[in-house]
Amino acid sequence: MSADINIQGVNKSFGFNKVLDSVDLSVPAGSVCVILGPSGSGKSTLLRCINHLERIDAGTIRVGDELIGYRQEGNRLFELQEYKIARQRTSIGMVFQHFNLFPHWTVLQNLIEAPIRVKRESKAVVMERAHRLLKRVGLAERANAWPRELSGGQQQRVAIARALAMEPDVMLFDEPTSALDPELVGEVLEVMRSLAKSGMTMVVVTHEIGFAREVADQIIFMDGGVIVEAGSAETVLDAPRHSRTKAFLSTVL
Ligand code: ADP
Ligand code: MG
C-alpha cells in the first residue's frame, strides 16, 4: 500500500535559525517527489520532520490518514506518546546517505530484526519477505554476508531492502547515492527506479538530475528553508523561473 503525504504551513527553527519557512507540499500516493537545493537549504530537516525525528514549530504533516506526531482535539494539537510515534514511523521508510546498517548483523538479520521486534510479525513471514526483497534488490546470494563484506552500492541496496521489510506506505531518501563511488551510483538508482514503477510514494533528496528528470512526477527546489519553485521536471529543470533555481542548476547540470 502506498499513502499520500500532505505538508501544510510547516515552520522549523533551530534557535534563531529558521530552517523551514511555511513549507507546503503535497505528494500524491504512488508518486515521486524529488527535492533539489543547495547544502543547508533545509532538505534533510524537511525529511526528518516527516517522521517526527524533528519536532515542527507550526503546521501539520499527514501521511495517509495519520497526523504525524500529534493528535488533534478541536483546533489544538497534543504531541503523541513515544510509542505511538514509533508506530507511525513503521509506515515511513527512510534511507540515508550513510547506509547505517548494523555492522554486527548479517544482511538477513538487518532485514528481519525490526519487523520481528517492532511489528511483532512471525519469523517465518518475515524471512520469506526478506529473501524476496533481497532478490528484488539483486542480492539474493548475499543474505549471510556481513555489511563490511559488501560494496557501498550493495550496502545501500540492503538498506533499501531493510526499509521495505517494514512494509512502509512511503519511502524517504536523503541523498542515497552521495556517499558512493561514481560507478556504484547506477545500481542504487536502478533499484529506486523500479520501486517508483511499483507505485511506492517516494520523496527523494538527490543531486542526480538525470534520475530526477526520468522518475520525478514533481520536482521542488528549496533554498533558505523555502520552496522556491515546484513543478514537473520540464518546468523546473528546463524552464526555471527563479534566478536561484537557475543558479543552482548551473552548478549541477
Ligand atoms: P540540507 O539537507 O538542505 O543540506 P539541513 O536540513 O541539513 O539542510 O540543514 C538546514 C539548516 O539547519 C542548516 O543551517 C543547518 O546547520 C541547520 N541544522 C540542521 N540540523 C540542525 C540541528 N540538529 N541543530 C541545529 N541546526 C541544525
Ligand atoms: Mg541534507
UniProtKB/TrEMBL annotation:
Location of the ABC transporter domain: 5-249
Subcellular location: Cell inner membrane
Keyword Cell membrane: yes
Alphabetized Pfam families for the sequence: ABC_tran
Top-level lineage group: Bacteria
Gene Ontology CC: one annotated term: plasma membrane
Membrane topology category: Peripheral membrane protein
Signal peptide (residue range): none
Family: Belongs to the ABC transporter superfamily.
Name the record gives this protein: Ectoine/hydroxyectoine ABC transporter ATP-binding protein EhuA
